[in-house]
Amino acid sequence: MSTKRIVCLFVILWGAALFSAGGFCQNVNISASGPSVVGVGQQFTVTFTVNAQVDNIKPPSFKDFDFLGGPSKSISNFFSSANGQVQQSTNISFTYYLRAKTEGIFSVLAASCQVDGKTYESNALTVRVEKGGGSPAQTQPQTRQQTQQPQGQTTLDENSIFVRAAPSKNNAAQGEQVIITYKIYTLVPLSQYQILKLPANKGFWVEELDNNKQDRVKQSTENYNGRTYSVAEIRKIAIFPQESGRLSIDPLELDVIAQLQAPRRSTGSIFDLFDDPFFAQVQQVKKTLRSNPVTITVEPLPSKPQDFAGAVGTFTQQTSVDRQKVRANEAFTYKMTISGKGNIMLIDKPVVNFPQGFEVYEPKTSLNLSKSDAGVSGSKTFEWILIPRSEGKYVIPSATFTFYDPTTKRFVDQKTNEYAIEVEKGDPNSSAVLSSSNKQEVKLLNSDIEYIKDKSVKLHPKNKSFFRSDLFWILLIIPFVLATACILLLRSIMKSRNNVSAMRLKRATSVARKRLKKAEKFLENKDVNGFYVEISQAMWGYLSDKFNISQAKLSMDSIQESLAKKNVNQEIIAQIMNALNDCEYARFAPGDTTENMDKLYHEAIHVITKVENELK
Length: 616
Prior knowledge:
Elements: H1 3-23, E1 30-33, E2 37-39, E3 43-50, E4 65-82, E5 85-100, E6 104-108, E7 112-115, E8 118-121, E9 125-130, E10 161-167, E11 171-173, E12 178-186, E13 190-197, E14 204-208, E15 218-224, E16 227-241, E17 245-249, E18 253-261, E19 282-290, E20 294-299, E21 308-321, E22 325-327, E23 332-342, E24 358-360, E25 364-372, E26 375-388, E27 392-396, E28 400-405, E29 410-415, E30 419-424, E31 430-434, E32 442-446, H2 470-498, H3 500-524, H4 528-546, H5 556-565, H6 570-585, H7 593-614
Parallel strand pairs: 2-9, 11-20, 21-28, 22-30
Antiparallel strand pairs: 1-3, 3-5, 4-5, 6-9, 7-8, 10-12, 12-16, 13-18, 14-16, 15-16, 17-20, 18-19, 21-23, 23-26, 24-26, 25-26, 27-30, 28-29, 31-32
Helix pairs in contact: 3-4, 3-7, 4-7, 5-6, 6-7
């Protein structure tokens, strides 16, 4: 047979194989396997095998046994050929390590998983626990599927288990979104992990992209440096550099508990032939891991346009007015919504040149964030309240929204719509006034013509004149005195409102008390999520307001530097830093959640009281 014919035949067979493999479809099945008889104190495994691609399963409680660890995940691929068709199947196994506690007959309930939105359940198992242990013939799995366990390790080295911090990019523009993923790579089973220290975020705005809960950890397998590891994604964040240069993120520190097989001693007996790893003792080994530090080279933005509001990413804008025909002194709204992916939460209000004769108030801002594995996206809306004071035809001109696109490395200008506003003559007896101190809500107050009074007129003597009388001069002077007092009071109020630092300092303690009171209610109701949100915002928000530190620059370092500038005692500074660390790490620590919450609540009160007393 010629070489050309061989090549043609090979191509035809390969195409047929791909077609058959692609068209092959199998029913999803999840099965449980394990021993039917074990002895008291004996360790054994229960394995759930799924013939479909799943990331995790929902196991039963294993309440009748001591839970030693798991799941240990393994993947097996199988190929078969029949009648000229090639078929491929994948089995994913989740193995749990258990130990029998007391004699009796116990059930291992079904596990479940979801595939394409449908829930599938495994078979249940029955395990009889006998005194003195079961015989080898009785420890056969209850299903036909055999799962071969890998040889267990007895020692740990730096390549057996480690944690990596992987940034999506090492070079970014100022304000550009960078995603950092923290993963544990392991060759041995792990029973738990605990984050000890989160990296400082100096120079970055940080947004968490996951809930950092161990029951939601994403697991997979990955080939790294020629070895296949079980991988657990434990943290994912989006960072936004706020300054240029080489910025570093410190390592993440955590503790893990690994399960190793204790080395067995040979007895020289014939029974050493049955020295299978399945029957080996498991020892729990605690190890502290530190991720690699991450360095991001941040390039400054090019010469910024005048109307640049700080947006870095990819965005679109949309504007609207609720009315284009109004009366003088009537309020209407002009709204601009910016949507896209990037530093949406850090965008300042755009510049819009409203017509002369319009009274314009500070815009009301609303933020809608969406966080996913791909990063931070969402929308930010600015809503201005406008009050035309005179009739006529006006035009709200087109404005320019400018953002920096890091993919093209240039500024992009987007023009807003232009709106023609017709202002008709207004009611002279009505006026638009503010209904709140922040000038964001307006209502219309109307005053009607008062009715004619029907009371009799009081007459005065002819020779007695009110003009130049004592009462006349008193009433003449009173309006000037009241006007002067109002002007002085108004100036004082405006000065205090314009002094943002003083306002934040003044309200810092009251805001912290309110949040602590809410945190106390969550503590009483054992609402973990609500408690940690309020206690964290109480401590960080109090220190931010007290020392006038912006959210973008708020960090452990900036807090410590501000306390030192205020000549706060070093011992108190150390207590405050420890309390902030406890606040950040307590939510990730396993154990007695109620005890951690109560301890953290009292630490927060202690910190705020100390700072108040120190700064008096």
